[in-house]
Specification:
The chain is α+β, with helices and mostly antiparallel strands and about 575 residues long. The strands form 6 sheets. Strands 10, 16, 17, 18, 19 and 20 form a 6-stranded antiparallel β-sheet that branches. Strands 11-12-15-14-13 form a 5-stranded mixed β-sheet. Strands 1-3-2 form a 3-stranded mixed β-sheet, covered by helices on one side. Helices cover about 30% and strands about 20% of the residues.
Length: about 575
């Protein structure tokens, strides 16, 4: 039986010191929904014996079928603690009742004896027994939440500088900092759900209507889909000088995409991609039929050697020229750029960093113009010319950014290439210099020099971690061989007389589709896998300029998808083309 009502929830929402906001985050199939069920059990929403089976937050049919949370789902929990449990708590509080705003996110010695039959359990069955026996939510997890997570009134005093994108001394920042219920409305919209039609509190698959929700809480509301497509900040109509709450940023770019098109144009204005496609069909295009093309993986473009020669590109008027060469950047420099260790506009610190950390010669940094594309990616433009005007320099930079954003092989972003402008020849007559063509010449020179430096594709790679019992090892390695997984390490852990093996390796993302399902099928769900992308890219050593190579197949497929044509231009054509 549920231990609280919507009315009681609304009452405790005003007690800012007794609110806790948290999210359960884990990889798909790693027990986040089971953990959430344990917390929900303590609130009396489901029975103890159903923990791990009900999956309260699997509100979608496809999620329930897979047994894992597909979309982030919110639920409110009320937890009453005893005076004895709170005797060591030193924070401010208003009574013993606590409201926990919980979001179950999808996966992007104890001195307790186990019975012999329990020791034989594996996978989710073992997890369920562990959660029930060793970590009862009402005694452990919920108390940890109350003790160790800050209330909104405390957390926002130090989080405001990371949340608010405006002056930290204006009325809006002050209200956020103080969690002020009388302050101006500042509401961050993080998720759009077309089915929500009113202001509600979210109880997984159930919605409870309320008139209002005070500051420091999560809330679902209606009427926004006509104006907002993703995320936004809401404020009241008089707050014209308010600044937005910062959007959430993700540390890794997406590396898998899928193309779709409508089967009938008339009348239409891996797991998570499947879900997006299903939502697209059901919620956003009114059920219109669509054609779904195979998943595509993004690649990067790089070079293996220095270019064979300097490229010489003439301007359209044939009176002027630009010379450029390319070479691969050292891995240490690429990592330093990615980590923001230095920038080309800080000559002193950049020179010090390059000379002492990376053994570059003194003074070399003065020749660095910029990184690119977008001034932050790990490609570099250096200059050996003298006396260029700012106008011409800016045009060369524009050409460099255009080229590094769309490489010559398949229009993919470049990675780890250093370009050097070695010479620029200009007509003595200023009127015949054709400065409007400098960017085009610089772009063509960069692409041609890339072709002359053994261009290669870089493919994104997952770090794979697999846990499996000894009896499933043969089946595990069968899948690893089938999917071309490079095994890095295998570790044996003795556990209750039944050894557990942890295997780590690398898996090309293009080979990863269906990997987890294949592993589960081959091992009868005894093996659990975790795939992590930590921005690792590896060179495909086959030559993309060889029409029969595997890399050429990827290049052709990408070029076809992007409408580039199958023929890669030659360095001579780029040099001669105006």
């Amino acid at each position: 039986m549920v231990k609280f009502t919507a009315k009681e929830l609304r009452t405790i929402m005003d007690k800012r010191n007794n609110i806790r906001n948290m999210s359960v985050i884990a990889h798909v199939g790693h027990g986040n929904s089971t953990l959430t069920d344990s917390l929900v059990t303590a609130a009396g929403i489901i029975a103890q014996e159903d923990v791990g089976d009900v999956h309260m937050t699997d509100t979608r049919a496809d999620g329930a079928e897979r047994g894992s949370t597909i979309k982030s789902t919110g639920i409110y929990l009320f937890h009453e603690m005893s005076d004895e449990s709170l005797k060591l708590y030193k924070g401010e509080r208003d009574g013993n009742g606590y409201l926990i705003n919980l979001i179950d996110s999808p996966g992007h010695k104890l001195g307790v004896a186990m019975r012999n039959d329990e020791k034989k359990l594996m996978g989710k069955a073992l997890m369920k027994q562990v959660m029930k026996t060793w970590l009862p939510a009402s005694r452990a997890l919920l108390e940890m939440i109350v003790y160790h997570l800050p209330s909104p009134s405390k957390a926002q005093t130090y989080r405001v500088e990371n949340l608010y994108d405006g002056p930290l001394d204006d009325a809006y920042a002050t209200a956020i900092r103080n969690c002020d219920p009388e302050g101006p409305l500042m509401l961050y919209v993080s998720k759009m759900i077309p089915s929500v039609q009113r202001t509600v509190i979210w109880m997984a698959s159930k919605l409870e209507a309320v008139e209002e929700v005070p500051c420091g809480n999560t809330v679902a509301m209606a009427g926004l889909e006509e104006s907002i497509t993703n995320n936004a900040t809401l404020t009241n109509e008089k707050s014209v000088d308010a600044c937005p709450i910062r959007a959430m940023k993700f540390s890794m770019p997406p590396v898998v995409r899928v193309a779709v098109e409508f089967k009938n144009q008339a009348g239409v204005g891996e797991l998570h991609l499947d879900v997006c496609l299903e939502d697209l069909k059901k919620n956003f295009v009114c059920g219109a039929e669509i054609i779904v093309y195979p998943f595509e993986v993004d690649f990067l473009e790089t070079v293996l050697t220095a270019s064979e020669r300097d490229v010489r590109c003439r301007f359209k008027n044939n009176h002027n020229f630009l010379c450029m060469s390319s070479q691969p950047l050292e891995n240490e420099v690429v990592e330093a750029i990615n980590d923001g260790c230095f920038n080309p506009h800080d000559n002193f610190n950049a020179s010090k960093f390059l000379s002492k950390k990376l053994n570059w010669g003194e003074g070399g940094v003065e020749n660095i113009w910029c990184f690119g594309p977008e001034t932050t990616s790990p490609n570099m433009l250096t200059d050996k010319c003298k006396g260029l005007t700012n106008e011409m320099k800016n045009s060369v930079l524009s050409g460099f950014h255009l080229a590094s954003k769309n490489g010559v092989l398949a229009g993919q972003e470049m990675h780890g290439i250093s370009f050097t402008v070695s010479d620029i020849g200009l007509h003595a007559d200023v009127n015949k210099r054709g400065l409007d063509r400098v960017a085009s010449a610089a772009r063509r020179a960069a692409l041609a020099s890339q072709l002359l430096a053994k261009p290669r594709l870089l493919e994104p790679v997952y770090l794979v971690k697999i846990q499996a019992p000894e009896q499933a090892l043969n089946a595990v390695y069968g899948v690893l061989n089938e999917k071309r997984v490079e095994v890095l390490k295998e570790k044996k852990i003795q556990r209750f007389g039944n050894p557990l093996y942890i295997i780590k390796g690398r898996l090309a993302i293009q080979d990863s589709f269906g990997f987890s399902q294949s592993l589960s099928d081959a091992t009868s769900n005894q093996a659990v896998s975790l795939l992590m992308f930590n921005n690792r890219w590896e060179v495909m050593y086959s030559d993309p300029l060889n029409a029969r190579s595997p890399a050429a197949e990827h290049v052709n497929r990408i070029r076809k998808r992007r409408g580039l044509g199958l023929q890669i231009t030659t360095p001579s054509d780029l040099e001669a083309k105006f």
